[in-house]
Amino acid sequence: HPAAKTLVDIAKSQDAEVGDGTTSVTLLAAEFLKQIKPYVEEGLHPQIIIRAFRVATQLAVEKIRKIAITIKKTDPIELNGLLEKCASTALSSKLISHQKDFFAKMVVD
To answer: Which GO terms describe its molecular function (predicted)?
Structure first.
Protein backbone atom coordinates (compact mmCIF):
# COMPACT_ATOMS: atom_id res chain seq x y z
CA HIS A 1 0.00 0.00 0.00
CA PRO A 2 1.48 3.40 -0.98
CA ALA A 3 0.58 5.13 2.30
CA ALA A 4 2.15 2.37 4.40
CA LYS A 5 5.28 2.45 2.24
CA THR A 6 5.47 6.22 2.73
CA LEU A 7 5.26 5.81 6.51
CA VAL A 8 8.06 3.24 6.44
CA ASP A 9 10.18 5.56 4.27
CA ILE A 10 9.55 8.48 6.64
CA ALA A 11 10.64 6.39 9.64
CA LYS A 12 13.77 5.18 7.85
CA SER A 13 14.66 8.72 6.81
CA GLN A 14 14.16 10.03 10.35
CA ASP A 15 16.33 7.25 11.77
CA ALA A 16 19.08 7.85 9.21
CA GLU A 17 19.11 11.63 9.69
CA VAL A 18 18.54 11.94 13.44
CA GLY A 19 18.75 8.47 14.97
CA ASP A 20 15.63 9.01 17.06
CA GLY A 21 12.05 10.18 16.77
CA THR A 22 10.85 7.48 14.40
CA THR A 23 7.69 6.82 16.40
CA SER A 24 6.84 10.51 16.67
CA VAL A 25 7.33 11.23 12.98
CA THR A 26 5.36 8.12 11.99
CA LEU A 27 2.46 9.02 14.27
CA LEU A 28 2.42 12.59 12.99
CA ALA A 29 2.44 11.47 9.36
CA ALA A 30 -0.26 8.87 10.07
CA GLU A 31 -2.44 11.56 11.62
CA PHE A 32 -1.95 13.76 8.55
CA LEU A 33 -3.04 10.86 6.35
CA LYS A 34 -6.04 10.17 8.57
CA GLN A 35 -7.14 13.81 8.36
CA ILE A 36 -6.87 14.03 4.57
CA LYS A 37 -8.45 10.65 3.83
CA PRO A 38 -12.02 12.01 3.51
CA TYR A 39 -10.84 14.66 1.04
CA VAL A 40 -8.99 12.11 -1.06
CA GLU A 41 -12.06 9.87 -1.04
CA GLU A 42 -14.18 12.81 -2.23
CA GLY A 43 -11.80 13.21 -5.16
CA LEU A 44 -10.06 16.41 -4.10
CA HIS A 45 -6.93 16.88 -6.18
CA PRO A 46 -3.69 16.07 -4.28
CA GLN A 47 -2.16 19.42 -5.29
CA ILE A 48 -4.94 21.24 -3.41
CA ILE A 49 -4.21 19.15 -0.32
CA ILE A 50 -0.49 19.86 -0.64
CA ARG A 51 -1.18 23.58 -1.02
CA ALA A 52 -3.33 23.47 2.13
CA PHE A 53 -0.50 21.81 4.07
CA ARG A 54 1.91 24.51 2.88
CA VAL A 55 -0.46 27.26 4.02
CA ALA A 56 -0.90 25.50 7.37
CA THR A 57 2.88 25.28 7.71
CA GLN A 58 3.23 29.01 7.09
CA LEU A 59 0.53 29.77 9.67
CA ALA A 60 2.25 27.51 12.22
CA VAL A 61 5.62 29.19 11.67
CA GLU A 62 4.01 32.62 12.03
CA LYS A 63 2.39 31.54 15.31
CA ILE A 64 5.67 30.16 16.64
CA ARG A 65 7.41 33.43 15.80
CA LYS A 66 4.60 35.37 17.48
CA ILE A 67 4.84 33.44 20.75
CA ALA A 68 8.64 33.26 20.80
CA ILE A 69 10.36 34.85 23.76
CA THR A 70 13.53 36.89 23.84
CA ILE A 71 16.30 35.49 26.00
CA LYS A 72 18.15 38.16 27.94
CA LYS A 73 21.87 37.65 27.71
CA THR A 74 22.70 40.03 30.54
CA ASP A 75 22.47 37.43 33.32
CA PRO A 76 24.95 34.62 32.56
CA ILE A 77 23.51 32.30 35.22
CA GLU A 78 19.96 32.65 33.88
CA LEU A 79 21.22 32.27 30.31
CA ASN A 80 23.14 29.08 31.18
CA GLY A 81 20.05 27.68 32.91
CA LEU A 82 17.89 28.30 29.85
CA LEU A 83 20.52 26.88 27.52
CA GLU A 84 20.82 23.76 29.70
CA LYS A 85 17.03 23.28 29.54
CA CYS A 86 17.13 23.59 25.75
CA ALA A 87 20.03 21.17 25.49
CA SER A 88 18.34 18.74 27.87
CA THR A 89 15.20 18.74 25.74
CA ALA A 90 17.23 18.14 22.60
CA LEU A 91 19.05 15.27 24.32
CA SER A 92 15.85 13.53 25.48
CA SER A 93 16.31 10.69 23.04
CA LYS A 94 16.13 7.01 23.73
CA LEU A 95 19.89 6.82 23.28
CA ILE A 96 21.11 9.06 26.11
CA SER A 97 18.03 10.28 27.98
CA HIS A 98 19.24 8.75 31.24
CA GLN A 99 22.32 11.05 31.15
CA LYS A 100 20.79 14.11 29.46
CA ASP A 101 21.50 16.48 32.37
CA PHE A 102 25.18 15.55 32.37
CA PHE A 103 25.50 16.06 28.62
CA ALA A 104 23.36 19.22 28.64
CA LYS A 105 25.74 20.88 31.10
CA MET A 106 28.72 19.70 29.06
CA VAL A 107 27.25 21.12 25.84
CA VAL A 108 26.49 24.51 27.40
CA ASP A 109 29.88 24.78 29.10
So the answer is: ATP binding; ATP hydrolysis activity; ATP-dependent protein folding chaperone; unfolded protein binding
